[in-house]
Amino acid sequence: MSDYKVKDIALAEQGAMKLDWANAHMPVLSELRKEWEAERPLAGMRIAGCLHVTKETGILIRTLKAAGAELSWSGCNPLSTQDDVAAALAAEGFSMYAWHGMNTEEFYWCIDKTVEFKPTLTLDDGADLIFRIHDQHQDLIPGIIGGSEETTTGVHRLRSMAADGALQYPVIAVNDSETKWDFDNVYGTGQSSIDGILRATSVLLAGKTFVVAGYGHCGRGCAMRARGMGCRVVVTEIKATAALKARLEGFEVMEMDDAAKIGDIFITATGMRDVVTGRHFESMKDGAVVCNTGHYDVELALTDLDEIMDSRRDIRDNCEEVTMPDGRHIYVLAKGRLVNLAAAEGHPSEVMDMSFANQVKAMIHLAKQGEAMNNEVYVLPAEIDEEIAGIKLRSMGSKLDVLTPEQIAYRDAYSEGT
Ligand code: 3DD
Known about the structure:
The chain is of the alpha/beta class. It has 17 helices and 16 strands. The strands form 2 sheets. It has an 8-stranded parallel sheet, sandwiched between helices. Strands 10-9-8-11-12-15-14-13 form an 8-stranded mixed sheet, sandwiched between helices. Helix 1 crosses helix 4 and helix 3 runs parallel beside helix 15.
């Protein structure tokens, strides 16, 4: 039994059933695992992972082990660990350091534990592990072939690091694979954010004014699913092209200063800090619900709210009732952290299936070619998207047409005109 620290190992049996449930809905990893079990392309690799410990991540971890890797794992957010899943993985023998509700000191203690076995690869969601290694474990870097990064904001930061020449090993931006960002970020975030809001509030969405800050892939998914539940959707943005897409999709676009006055439910998905600030809280309607679905907890300026509020109480799980001096109530979900993972179970298994197939592919790519790669941020070859999407489609019972030789000739020709 490896070393571990989880909330309660007695939760293992319950967690094992959640893992069975996730596995039953992750056909892409199931199919690819067959070849990986045979080839063991990660034999000899030691992977330190820092990614939300959910039932889906448990299947990723099992798959990485099946591919031959040795693993040590921590959660990448203090509120996203599913304690029963962490217990099940620890009981299976994985080095697991994660529990729901850890403080900052414990968060970094867990990350430090995962690098004790001197990883050859790192797997990140939000780049906290890579940053910690660069800051506190420089001695490990010569032994690290490369790393991967799951999320948009993590990739942004690593690209900035690489541009400054500060990145000390190659990284693959898993987020930038089409079968990750165009599915996980859109359909996953859209559904799981609504899931988190409903579990934390159980309010009727139909007829409510739902304000989405940020119309990137995640915001687009949230707007799409809120409309599906009967909301009036308002989008706020800083980027004209994104805001224009929102308008052409039929969503209203306005400044947050104006949206704050009319919104019933607010969700931030910008990757930026201080998107909803004190003046916005001050102009919100009584009963407004605010939450965030971005990776870091900086999008809602809750320190501003602390300064202007009169009192607070935890009225429901993951739902804090903040009373303003004039008696208005504002409901803050999941303490401003990512509501989909903190108040629900994150994205459904079916989308994480593709994201995590890209993660395993990234680990294999690094294991095979990492030594020849530069200290830059790479993306996986596009053909991997076609492979993953093809497996997914087949699992859904859909078949593709195939180009005939004549069509291929036509496609590649340039002599034929109109
Ligand atoms: N993320 C969302 N749901 C998740 C789940 N069920 N398991 C693990 C991670 C999960 C985070 C993803 O959105 C990740 O792809 C990201 O952060 O971009």
